[in-house]
Amino acid sequence: MTSPQAPKTQWQSLFSNRGFPFFFAAMFVSLFGTGMNFAGVTLYVLAKTHSTVQVSLTVVLLTLPRLLVPPFGGVLTDRADRRYLSIILDLGRAAIVAAAALLAWRGSLELWQLYGMVLLLGVGFAIYWSSSLALLQEVIPPPQLVSANSAVLIAVQGGMLVAGGLVGFVYERAGLAGILAIDGATYALSALCFYLLRRGYFPPRVSALPTLFSTVRLS
Q1: Domains in the chain: boundaries
Q2: What's CA 71's distance to the chain center, in Å?
Q3: Which among 126, 54, 48 has a CA at the least distance from the CA of 92?
Q4: pLDDT tens readout for residues 133-156
Q5: Quick one: fold of 18-218?
Q6: What is the pTM assigned to this prediction?
Q7: Integer CA distances (angstroms), 29 to 26, 36, 71, 171, 211, in order
Q8: Which end of the chain has a smaller Cβ tally under 10 Å, C or N?
Q9: What is the DSSP string of 171-185?
């Protein structure tokens, strides 16, 4: 006679959803890279200009798109496959950061180029955040969404926290070029996690959630 299996805990049940571990990993590594980037750029601008005003400008350029872009990004989120959209945003940000890393490694990175990078990353993050949270609703059944959102916040804050603890050591040894190279690699890894999350194309306006849940589990 076999003994009855112990019921799964809430977290075990959450991570038993096929795509969620990949989603969690994508958010962690992506925000780790974002945290490294923001801290590294801040240190670089302060060291180069000795101006708190210039540092504040980087914060403005990073934050302003989050206020202006979401209404337009919501159109993409409602019309495109959110997994593909997240992958494209990750790869696009990886390309931007890699180009800046190359310029920094050559010693030819200008402040206006750095500010342009920060602005583009702010635009990309504004769309990425809304599309990824919308994608979460396609990966997790509705009864588990509260727990899933809590886990995603852990991934986000955990990634930023680890980045804050390591960025000083990395910056001292590899400089801004090393920081940006790591950031680009994390975006590429995040894109890979989203690619592995599920199979197939799911237009948001066509696919019904219950059908999607069953499709994801069977794929």
Answers
A1: 18-218
A2: 19
A3: 126
A4: 889 988 888 888 888 999 999 999
A5: Growth Hormone; Chain: A; (1.20.1250)
A6: 0.84
A7: 5, 11, 26, 18, 30
A8: N
A9: HHHHHHHHHHHHHHH
